[in-house]
């Protein structure tokens, strides 16, 4: 149906095409009364959508007329102009297509000539006419009139060729036009967010919004983006986590609270990290890290079912991954010890941890022994996890906002959830004792003074809130982008609609 070649146009060819299209735009504007309402009309008499037409007339037979007239608009993605009858494939935003037939007998000589002269691939056009099927059985609209809906000045890339990854990321609008998977990613993300909100609502959680601009960064160990407020003449930080504000809400009596938000961390970017990312955080009064793990499993399984209709999801490469059932829970210290054949506990000397790290050539530039334990665990254990797994009970010194374990000295009641080989979520029994929290913040301040750019600052307003009493609470955080990765099998730059790139 298309007459275009399969090679990608050169920069010179694109420049020439733009000049031709700009001239057509000028003609459409100059002759608006004769050729419609110009190159960019304010409105058009659209009566239905391409998907609705396809659904309504699905049973129309070969070379059959419906007797019903519709007005639709779509982007021209294929075009063939042949004598007295021209054909175009019009595509809607969801990728649905319908054939438009523009004939001399139906639109007249002047309108047919204008079609041939003015319509290019990529243009949005409106056609009105009877719904029919062609001799080949293709659902079509036999146009009795047509109008330009939006003149495309830039030519589309060749839709027969696969877009490069660079084009997909930098020009996502072209990716959405050309590729079904790109459109599906947007819909899947919307479905996941709707599912998360539905699950929370069913469990009595309240959605709130907390500040993106903060006078003090906190809630996670991360390097912040720093900016300046002219109005307040003060240094401000882009949010690295909403945690400290959501906990204030719990103190205030909103005992089941969540937020889906944008966070910003001035750190590296790779296949699982982006400097700007979407995060879900939730806190439940009178819960702990066990109940919050149950909640997290339900949130993810509900989201998977909403997208795939099953807890077994099919990734983009065709791999099936089972998110159903009860997920494994294993101890970080016990699993590390089993992997290296030696008992590892919070009392294991730093000297021994360094020896173990040196033996496998792990460089740990950090003064805390807990960091060595975590790095050793990632080296020896993480790659062996295939099913979704909660890794429980982390070193105390690496988790300053977490409650100390109720029965195991030197560790905290924290888990990380690993799915597809990466950390998807983290959960805690929250530290609610303001005196202990102050001690932890003071230690963080010492690390910051020593040059650690990720250490938290002492947040007096948060501590003051805790001093009014915060009930026992379980809390969790999960990356929305990573949740989409777990459900779809795609990389992070595919799950973010407009990722940050250099």
Automatic annotation (TrEMBL):
One of its GO terms (biological process) is lysyl-tRNA aminoacylation. Its cofactor is Mg(2+). The keyword GTP-binding does not apply. It catalyses: tRNA(Lys) + L-lysine + ATP = L-lysyl-tRNA(Lys) + AMP + diphosphate. CDD domains: LysRS_N. Its main location: cytoplasm. It is an enzyme of class 6 (ligase). This is Lysine--tRNA ligase. The gene is lysS.
